[in-house]
Design goal:
Chain lengths: 99, 299
Protein backbone atom coordinates (compact mmCIF):
# COMPACT_ATOMS: atom_id res chain seq x y z
CA UNK A 1 0.00 0.00 0.00
CA UNK A 2 1.24 3.49 -0.76
CA UNK A 3 0.25 6.31 1.45
CA UNK A 4 1.13 9.92 1.17
CA UNK A 5 3.01 11.59 2.57
CA UNK A 6 5.50 8.75 2.04
CA UNK A 7 7.97 8.10 4.87
CA UNK A 8 10.53 10.24 3.08
CA UNK A 9 8.03 13.05 2.53
CA UNK A 10 7.21 12.99 6.24
CA UNK A 11 10.89 13.07 7.17
CA UNK A 12 11.36 15.97 4.76
CA UNK A 13 8.48 17.89 6.39
CA UNK A 14 10.06 17.36 9.82
CA UNK A 15 13.46 18.42 8.49
CA UNK A 16 12.03 21.66 7.07
CA UNK A 17 10.17 22.41 10.28
CA UNK A 18 13.24 21.87 12.46
CA UNK A 19 15.65 23.72 10.16
CA UNK A 20 13.42 26.67 9.23
CA UNK A 21 11.18 27.17 12.25
CA UNK A 22 12.85 25.69 15.32
CA UNK A 23 16.59 26.14 14.74
CA UNK A 24 16.40 29.95 14.33
CA UNK A 25 14.65 30.26 17.71
CA UNK A 26 17.33 28.33 19.64
CA UNK A 27 19.68 30.62 21.60
CA UNK A 28 21.30 27.98 23.73
CA UNK A 29 24.59 26.82 22.17
CA UNK A 30 24.18 23.26 23.28
CA UNK A 31 20.63 23.02 21.95
CA UNK A 32 21.68 24.52 18.61
CA UNK A 33 24.53 22.07 18.27
CA UNK A 34 22.31 19.10 19.08
CA UNK A 35 19.68 20.32 16.63
CA UNK A 36 22.29 20.40 13.87
CA UNK A 37 23.33 16.86 14.83
CA UNK A 38 19.68 15.77 14.79
CA UNK A 39 19.21 17.27 11.31
CA UNK A 40 22.27 15.37 10.17
CA UNK A 41 20.79 12.16 11.55
CA UNK A 42 17.52 12.88 9.79
CA UNK A 43 19.46 13.30 6.55
CA UNK A 44 20.85 9.78 7.05
CA UNK A 45 17.32 8.45 7.56
CA UNK A 46 16.14 10.14 4.37
CA UNK A 47 18.99 8.75 2.27
CA UNK A 48 18.31 5.31 3.70
CA UNK A 49 14.61 5.64 2.85
CA UNK A 50 15.49 6.71 -0.69
CA UNK A 51 17.08 3.31 -1.27
CA UNK A 52 13.88 1.37 -0.52
CA UNK A 53 11.99 0.01 -3.52
CA UNK A 54 8.91 2.09 -4.37
CA UNK A 55 5.70 0.51 -3.05
CA UNK A 56 3.02 -0.65 -5.41
CA UNK A 57 -0.52 0.74 -5.20
CA UNK A 58 -1.92 -1.12 -8.23
CA UNK A 59 -4.16 -3.34 -6.11
CA UNK A 60 -5.71 -0.42 -4.22
CA UNK A 61 -6.15 1.46 -7.51
CA UNK A 62 -7.97 -1.49 -9.01
CA UNK A 63 -10.25 -1.82 -6.00
CA UNK A 64 -11.00 1.91 -5.91
CA UNK A 65 -11.86 1.87 -9.64
CA UNK A 66 -14.19 -1.13 -9.27
CA UNK A 67 -16.08 0.53 -6.41
CA UNK A 68 -16.33 3.75 -8.43
CA UNK A 69 -17.92 1.71 -11.24
CA UNK A 70 -20.51 0.38 -8.79
CA UNK A 71 -19.02 -3.10 -8.61
CA UNK A 72 -19.40 -3.71 -4.87
CA UNK A 73 -19.94 -7.41 -4.12
CA UNK A 74 -20.74 -8.57 -0.57
CA UNK A 75 -17.60 -8.63 1.54
CA UNK A 76 -16.08 -5.55 -0.08
CA UNK A 77 -16.51 -3.42 3.04
CA UNK A 78 -14.95 -6.05 5.31
CA UNK A 79 -11.89 -6.17 3.11
CA UNK A 80 -11.59 -2.37 2.83
CA UNK A 81 -12.03 -1.96 6.58
CA UNK A 82 -9.26 -4.49 7.27
CA UNK A 83 -6.94 -2.55 4.93
CA UNK A 84 -7.70 0.73 6.72
CA UNK A 85 -7.15 -0.92 10.11
CA UNK A 86 -3.75 -2.09 8.89
CA UNK A 87 -2.85 1.47 7.86
CA UNK A 88 -3.98 2.74 11.26
CA UNK A 89 -1.51 0.42 12.99
CA UNK A 90 1.13 2.65 11.40
CA UNK A 91 -0.66 6.00 11.20
CA UNK A 92 -2.54 6.21 14.50
CA UNK A 93 -2.46 2.91 16.45
CA UNK A 94 -4.38 4.14 19.51
CA UNK A 95 -7.31 5.25 17.37
CA UNK A 96 -8.48 1.64 17.01
CA UNK A 97 -9.11 1.49 20.78
CA UNK A 98 -11.94 3.97 20.32
CA UNK A 99 -14.19 1.38 18.67
CA UNK B 1 -10.55 58.88 18.24
CA UNK B 2 -9.75 55.26 19.07
CA UNK B 3 -7.65 56.09 22.09
CA UNK B 4 -4.75 53.82 22.96
CA UNK B 5 -4.12 50.90 20.61
CA UNK B 6 -2.37 47.81 21.96
CA UNK B 7 0.44 45.99 20.20
CA UNK B 8 -1.23 43.35 17.93
CA UNK B 9 -0.65 39.74 18.96
CA UNK B 10 -0.70 36.97 16.34
CA UNK B 11 -2.89 34.13 17.62
CA UNK B 12 -1.90 30.49 17.01
CA UNK B 13 -3.68 28.24 14.51
CA UNK B 14 -5.16 28.94 11.10
CA UNK B 15 -2.89 27.83 8.28
CA UNK B 16 -4.50 29.95 5.58
CA UNK B 17 -5.63 33.00 7.58
CA UNK B 18 -3.97 35.05 10.27
CA UNK B 19 -5.82 36.18 13.39
CA UNK B 20 -4.50 39.16 15.34
CA UNK B 21 -5.76 40.22 18.74
CA UNK B 22 -5.65 43.95 19.29
CA UNK B 23 -7.35 46.30 21.73
CA UNK B 24 -8.34 49.77 20.65
CA UNK B 25 -10.44 52.41 22.34
CA UNK B 26 -11.29 50.01 25.14
CA UNK B 27 -12.63 47.41 22.68
CA UNK B 28 -11.37 43.87 22.22
CA UNK B 29 -10.86 43.37 18.50
CA UNK B 30 -9.84 40.52 16.25
CA UNK B 31 -8.27 41.20 12.86
CA UNK B 32 -8.68 38.34 10.42
CA UNK B 33 -6.15 38.73 7.61
CA UNK B 34 -5.40 36.66 4.51
CA UNK B 35 -2.34 34.41 4.84
CA UNK B 36 0.53 34.35 2.43
CA UNK B 37 -0.49 31.10 0.74
CA UNK B 38 -2.77 30.33 -2.16
CA UNK B 39 -6.47 31.05 -1.75
CA UNK B 40 -8.37 27.77 -1.84
CA UNK B 41 -11.28 26.96 -4.02
CA UNK B 42 -14.69 26.72 -2.39
CA UNK B 43 -13.81 29.15 0.35
CA UNK B 44 -15.02 32.72 0.46
CA UNK B 45 -12.77 35.73 0.05
CA UNK B 46 -12.49 37.81 3.22
CA UNK B 47 -14.69 40.43 1.57
CA UNK B 48 -17.49 37.90 1.04
CA UNK B 49 -16.95 36.28 4.43
CA UNK B 50 -17.36 39.71 6.03
CA UNK B 51 -20.63 40.19 4.12
CA UNK B 52 -21.92 36.84 5.40
CA UNK B 53 -20.92 37.81 8.94
CA UNK B 54 -22.77 41.12 8.56
CA UNK B 55 -25.90 39.41 7.26
CA UNK B 56 -25.77 36.89 10.10
CA UNK B 57 -25.29 39.66 12.66
CA UNK B 58 -28.22 41.63 11.28
CA UNK B 59 -30.40 38.53 11.41
CA UNK B 60 -29.62 38.03 15.08
CA UNK B 61 -27.25 35.07 14.75
CA UNK B 62 -24.89 35.00 17.74
CA UNK B 63 -21.67 36.17 16.08
CA UNK B 64 -18.83 38.57 16.84
CA UNK B 65 -19.90 42.07 15.86
CA UNK B 66 -18.48 42.86 12.40
CA UNK B 67 -16.63 46.18 12.38
CA UNK B 68 -14.83 46.86 9.10
CA UNK B 69 -13.49 45.29 5.91
CA UNK B 70 -10.01 46.45 4.92
CA UNK B 71 -9.07 45.87 1.30
CA UNK B 72 -5.35 46.36 1.80
CA UNK B 73 -3.79 45.78 5.19
CA UNK B 74 -0.08 45.78 4.47
CA UNK B 75 -0.66 44.07 1.12
CA UNK B 76 -3.45 41.65 2.02
CA UNK B 77 -7.18 41.87 2.62
CA UNK B 78 -8.53 41.67 6.15
CA UNK B 79 -11.53 42.40 8.31
CA UNK B 80 -12.03 43.51 11.87
CA UNK B 81 -14.59 42.09 14.27
CA UNK B 82 -15.25 41.95 17.96
CA UNK B 83 -13.04 39.48 19.86
CA UNK B 84 -15.31 37.34 21.99
CA UNK B 85 -14.33 35.88 25.33
CA UNK B 86 -14.69 32.14 25.70
CA UNK B 87 -13.25 28.81 24.66
CA UNK B 88 -12.88 27.61 21.07
CA UNK B 89 -10.47 24.68 21.52
CA UNK B 90 -12.60 21.58 20.95
CA UNK B 91 -10.63 19.29 23.24
CA UNK B 92 -11.05 21.69 26.16
CA UNK B 93 -14.76 22.21 25.50
CA UNK B 94 -15.59 18.50 25.56
CA UNK B 95 -13.51 17.94 28.74
CA UNK B 96 -15.02 20.83 30.71
CA UNK B 97 -18.52 20.57 32.21
CA UNK B 98 -20.81 21.14 29.22
CA UNK B 99 -23.30 24.01 29.58
CA UNK B 100 -26.71 22.39 29.67
CA UNK B 101 -28.19 24.68 27.04
CA UNK B 102 -25.42 24.25 24.46
CA UNK B 103 -27.08 21.61 22.20
CA UNK B 104 -30.32 23.56 22.05
CA UNK B 105 -28.46 26.82 21.48
CA UNK B 106 -26.60 25.23 18.56
CA UNK B 107 -29.95 24.24 17.03
CA UNK B 108 -31.30 27.76 17.52
CA UNK B 109 -28.30 29.34 15.79
CA UNK B 110 -28.59 26.96 12.84
CA UNK B 111 -32.30 27.73 12.50
CA UNK B 112 -31.45 31.44 12.24
CA UNK B 113 -28.62 30.82 9.78
CA UNK B 114 -30.84 28.66 7.54
CA UNK B 115 -33.40 31.47 7.42
CA UNK B 116 -30.90 34.05 6.07
CA UNK B 117 -32.25 35.55 2.83
CA UNK B 118 -30.36 34.09 -0.13
CA UNK B 119 -30.76 37.26 -2.18
CA UNK B 120 -28.79 39.16 0.47
CA UNK B 121 -25.75 36.98 -0.36
CA UNK B 122 -25.87 36.47 -4.14
CA UNK B 123 -22.22 35.33 -4.35
CA UNK B 124 -22.88 32.09 -2.44
CA UNK B 125 -22.60 28.95 -4.56
CA UNK B 126 -24.39 25.64 -4.29
CA UNK B 127 -22.41 22.56 -3.28
CA UNK B 128 -23.05 18.99 -4.37
CA UNK B 129 -21.88 15.49 -3.52
CA UNK B 130 -20.38 15.37 -7.03
CA UNK B 131 -17.97 18.12 -6.07
CA UNK B 132 -16.45 15.72 -3.53
CA UNK B 133 -15.71 13.26 -6.32
CA UNK B 134 -13.93 15.97 -8.31
CA UNK B 135 -11.83 16.90 -5.30
CA UNK B 136 -10.87 13.26 -4.71
CA UNK B 137 -9.93 12.84 -8.35
CA UNK B 138 -7.69 15.89 -8.17
CA UNK B 139 -5.76 14.26 -5.33
CA UNK B 140 -5.25 11.23 -7.54
CA UNK B 141 -4.60 8.64 -4.80
CA UNK B 142 -6.63 5.41 -4.48
CA UNK B 143 -8.83 5.39 -1.35
CA UNK B 144 -11.30 2.50 -1.52
CA UNK B 145 -12.97 3.42 1.80
CA UNK B 146 -13.79 6.90 0.51
CA UNK B 147 -15.06 5.34 -2.74
CA UNK B 148 -17.35 3.06 -0.75
CA UNK B 149 -18.70 6.06 1.14
CA UNK B 150 -19.35 7.95 -2.11
CA UNK B 151 -20.98 4.86 -3.64
CA UNK B 152 -23.36 4.51 -0.69
CA UNK B 153 -24.18 8.24 -0.74
CA UNK B 154 -25.07 8.02 -4.45
CA UNK B 155 -27.30 4.99 -3.89
CA UNK B 156 -29.22 6.33 -0.87
CA UNK B 157 -29.75 10.00 -1.56
CA UNK B 158 -32.68 11.35 0.49
CA UNK B 159 -35.29 13.50 -1.27
CA UNK B 160 -33.55 16.85 -1.88
CA UNK B 161 -34.52 19.85 0.19
CA UNK B 162 -34.65 23.42 -1.03
CA UNK B 163 -31.09 24.79 -0.63
CA UNK B 164 -30.62 27.40 2.09
CA UNK B 165 -27.71 29.53 3.28
CA UNK B 166 -25.53 27.20 5.35
CA UNK B 167 -22.50 27.86 7.54
CA UNK B 168 -20.63 24.91 6.00
CA UNK B 169 -18.35 24.18 8.99
CA UNK B 170 -20.74 24.31 11.95
CA UNK B 171 -19.14 22.24 14.69
CA UNK B 172 -17.39 22.35 18.04
CA UNK B 173 -14.07 24.09 17.37
CA UNK B 174 -15.74 26.83 15.37
CA UNK B 175 -17.99 27.94 18.21
CA UNK B 176 -17.04 30.18 21.13
CA UNK B 177 -18.37 28.63 24.33
CA UNK B 178 -18.30 29.83 27.94
CA UNK B 179 -19.75 28.48 31.18
CA UNK B 180 -23.27 29.54 30.22
CA UNK B 181 -23.22 28.22 26.67
CA UNK B 182 -22.74 29.49 23.14
CA UNK B 183 -21.16 32.93 22.82
CA UNK B 184 -20.49 33.09 19.10
CA UNK B 185 -20.39 31.26 15.77
CA UNK B 186 -17.04 31.73 14.00
CA UNK B 187 -15.32 30.82 10.73
CA UNK B 188 -17.81 31.59 7.98
CA UNK B 189 -15.43 31.00 5.07
CA UNK B 190 -17.21 27.80 3.98
CA UNK B 191 -20.68 29.37 3.82
CA UNK B 192 -22.62 28.25 0.72
CA UNK B 193 -26.07 27.09 -0.41
CA UNK B 194 -26.99 23.55 0.51
CA UNK B 195 -29.42 21.07 2.00
CA UNK B 196 -30.02 22.30 5.58
CA UNK B 197 -29.79 18.73 6.93
CA UNK B 198 -26.19 18.58 5.74
CA UNK B 199 -25.26 21.58 7.88
CA UNK B 200 -27.21 20.15 10.82
CA UNK B 201 -25.35 16.83 10.65
CA UNK B 202 -21.82 18.19 10.33
CA UNK B 203 -21.39 18.65 14.10
CA UNK B 204 -21.96 14.89 14.49
CA UNK B 205 -18.82 13.86 12.61
CA UNK B 206 -16.66 11.82 15.00
CA UNK B 207 -13.49 13.83 14.35
CA UNK B 208 -15.32 16.85 15.83
CA UNK B 209 -16.21 15.01 19.04
CA UNK B 210 -12.60 15.52 20.14
CA UNK B 211 -12.34 12.13 21.82
CA UNK B 212 -15.71 12.25 23.63
CA UNK B 213 -17.04 9.73 21.12
CA UNK B 214 -20.10 8.62 23.11
CA UNK B 215 -21.74 12.00 22.75
CA UNK B 216 -22.71 12.04 19.11
CA UNK B 217 -23.35 15.77 18.97
CA UNK B 218 -19.80 17.08 18.90
CA UNK B 219 -18.76 15.31 22.08
CA UNK B 220 -21.06 17.58 24.08
CA UNK B 221 -24.54 16.06 23.95
CA UNK B 222 -27.14 13.78 22.47
CA UNK B 223 -28.63 14.46 19.07
CA UNK B 224 -32.31 14.19 20.01
CA UNK B 225 -32.82 17.54 21.82
CA UNK B 226 -30.77 19.28 19.12
CA UNK B 227 -32.80 17.81 16.27
CA UNK B 228 -36.08 18.37 18.07
CA UNK B 229 -35.39 22.06 18.77
CA UNK B 230 -34.21 22.61 15.18
CA UNK B 231 -37.33 21.03 13.74
CA UNK B 232 -39.54 22.98 16.13
CA UNK B 233 -38.02 26.27 14.94
CA UNK B 234 -37.73 25.56 11.21
CA UNK B 235 -40.61 23.21 10.52
CA UNK B 236 -38.25 21.31 8.22
CA UNK B 237 -38.97 17.95 9.90
CA UNK B 238 -35.47 16.63 9.33
CA UNK B 239 -35.54 12.88 9.96
CA UNK B 240 -32.95 10.97 12.00
CA UNK B 241 -32.07 8.91 8.91
CA UNK B 242 -31.25 12.12 7.05
CA UNK B 243 -28.80 12.96 9.83
CA UNK B 244 -27.27 9.47 9.40
CA UNK B 245 -26.90 10.11 5.68
CA UNK B 246 -25.34 13.55 6.07
CA UNK B 247 -23.12 12.43 8.96
CA UNK B 248 -21.61 9.91 6.58
CA UNK B 249 -21.34 12.62 3.91
CA UNK B 250 -19.60 14.85 6.47
CA UNK B 251 -17.07 12.10 7.14
CA UNK B 252 -16.48 11.52 3.43
CA UNK B 253 -16.00 15.26 2.98
CA UNK B 254 -13.53 15.48 5.85
CA UNK B 255 -11.63 12.37 4.67
CA UNK B 256 -11.16 14.10 1.30
CA UNK B 257 -10.40 17.35 3.12
CA UNK B 258 -7.50 15.66 4.92
CA UNK B 259 -6.07 14.60 1.55
CA UNK B 260 -6.47 18.03 -0.05
CA UNK B 261 -4.86 19.69 2.98
CA UNK B 262 -1.90 17.31 2.68
CA UNK B 263 -1.74 18.19 -1.04
CA UNK B 264 -1.20 21.83 -0.12
CA UNK B 265 2.01 20.72 1.56
CA UNK B 266 3.01 18.13 -1.03
CA UNK B 267 2.54 20.46 -4.00
CA UNK B 268 4.49 23.22 -2.25
CA UNK B 269 1.58 25.68 -1.98
CA UNK B 270 1.90 25.78 1.78
CA UNK B 271 4.77 23.79 3.28
CA UNK B 272 3.77 22.68 6.78
CA UNK B 273 4.25 19.57 8.88
CA UNK B 274 0.74 20.10 10.28
CA UNK B 275 -0.80 19.86 6.81
CA UNK B 276 1.48 16.98 5.81
CA UNK B 277 0.41 14.69 8.64
CA UNK B 278 -3.28 15.12 7.79
CA UNK B 279 -2.56 12.91 4.77
CA UNK B 280 -2.01 10.06 7.26
CA UNK B 281 -4.60 11.00 9.88
CA UNK B 282 -7.25 10.73 7.17
CA UNK B 283 -7.05 6.96 7.82
CA UNK B 284 -8.98 7.62 11.07
CA UNK B 285 -11.81 9.21 9.12
CA UNK B 286 -11.79 6.35 6.59
CA UNK B 287 -12.18 3.88 9.44
CA UNK B 288 -15.18 5.83 10.71
CA UNK B 289 -16.69 5.72 7.19
CA UNK B 290 -16.37 1.91 7.28
CA UNK B 291 -17.92 1.83 10.74
CA UNK B 292 -20.91 3.93 9.64
CA UNK B 293 -21.39 1.81 6.50
CA UNK B 294 -21.45 -1.33 8.65
CA UNK B 295 -24.20 0.26 10.73
CA UNK B 296 -26.15 0.70 7.48
CA UNK B 297 -25.90 -3.02 6.81
CA UNK B 298 -23.18 -2.93 4.14
CA UNK B 299 -20.83 -5.90 4.27
Amino acid sequence: MTERPTPDELAEAIEEFLANEVLPTLDDHRARFRMLVALNALGIVRRELAQLPPSDDAEQRGLAARIRAGDVPAGTLARVKADVAERLLIDSPRYLDRY
Amino acid sequence: MLGPISEPVLLPGGASKEAWAVDAGGERLLVRRAGGGVIHRHTLSLRDEFEVLRAAHQAGVTVPRPIAYIEDLDGREAFVMERLEGETIGRRIVRAPVPELLPVQMAEELAKIHALPRERLPFLEAATIERLVDELDEVGEPHPAIELGLWWLREHRPPPREPVVVHGDFRIGNLVVDGDGLVGVLDWEFAHLDDPARDLAFALVRAWRFGADDLRLGGIGDVEPYLERYNELTGFDVLPEELDYWELAGNVGWAIGCLTQAQRHLTGQDRSVELAILGRLGAEVEYEICHLLEAQGVT
